[in-house]
Amino acid sequence: MSVKDNPTFLSADGLVPRLPGVVFQFFRSFNGHMNFPYLEGGGSALDYIDREQLALDAGGLIEHITGNEYPKVMSAIERSARWMLPLTTRFKFPMTGTRSHWIAVSANPEPTVEGVLWTGLMMDITEQVVEEQRLRKLCDTDALTGLPNRRKLMLHLSHLASLSTRHGTPLSIMMVDIDHFKLLNDRWGHLQGDEVLKQLATEMKKLLRCEDMVARLGGEEFMVVLPLTPLQQCHKLADRLRLSVSQQDFGVGVGEVTLSIGVAEYRCGEPLMHFIERTDQALYSAKDVGRDCVCLLP
Ligand SMILES: Nc1nc2c(ncn2[C@@H]2O[C@H](COP(=O)(O)OP(=O)(O)OP(=O)(O)O)[C@@H](O)[C@H]2O)c(=O)[nH]1
Fold it and tell me: Domain GGDEF: where (predicted)?
C-alpha cells in the first residue's frame, strides 16, 4: 500500500488546518508594503484576525497586534531581510475577552524581484512563557518575604549605577539590619522571627516610592535602593524607617525590634563592590555606636 492509499494520510491542504499553529508566507516589498499571501492553520489565533485584510495589507494590523512590541518585531524583520537570516521573534497578541497570548514566529526569508518573502510558522507559546515567568520570579524572589533577592538586587543596582555614571544623577542605598535578631529568635522562637522579617518587609515597602527597591540580602539584612536620591534625602528616609519600626509591636512588643542602618551615595564610576562596602562599613558604625540608629561615613 502506498502512503497515499493509507486512510490516515492527509494532503497538505488537509493537514494544515489540524496543525497546532499557523503556516504563513509574509511579503515585504522594497517600498515597505507588507502582506500575508498565505496564512492558514489550526488553533484559535486565526479566529481573531481578518485574513482577507492581511492578504492585501498587513502593515496596520501588524502594528495593532504586536502593540508595544511592534519596534522589536519590525527590527527582527529588518535584520532578517538585510542579512537573509531566519526570522525568529515572539510577541504578545492581545485577544479581546480573553488573556493575551504569546506567539512565537520562525520563518526563512528569500529574496524576490520586488522584495523579500518569508515562509514560516507561528505557534502559540503562552503556556511556555507563563512557566518561564514563574521560574524567573522564583529565581529572583526571596521565598520568606516575597522581596527581590540578592541576585535581582545586584542586577538592578548595577543597571542603576551605570545610569548614574552616564547621566550624573544621584543614587543612594541603605543597608538595613535588625538588631540582636539572634536574641529575638532565641526568646520568641524561629517562627516568630520569620513573622518579624515578613512584617518588616511590608513596612519597608510601605515607606518607599514605586521606583525604589527593597531586597532581602539574606538573614536579617536588607538593602534599599533609591534612584535619583541624594544622600541627605536617603538619610532622612532611613531615619523615618528606623523610627517607625522602633514604635511598632511586630508581635513581640513595642521597641523590641530596632534597626541599624548604613547609608551611602554612589560616586560616579565607582566599582559597585566598593559602593556596597562603604555602605556596609556605615552599617557597622551604626552597630558600634549602639544600634537603633542611622550612620553615614564621609
Ligand atoms: N527567624 C529567622 N531567623 C533567621 C533567618 N535568617 C537568619 N536568621 C537568624 O538571624 C540571626 C542573626 O544573628 P547575628 O548575625 O548574630 O546578628 P544579631 O543577633 O542580629 O546581632 P547584631 O546584628 O549584631 O545586632 C541568627 O540567629 C540567624 O539564625 C530567617 O530566615 N528566619
Answer: 169-298
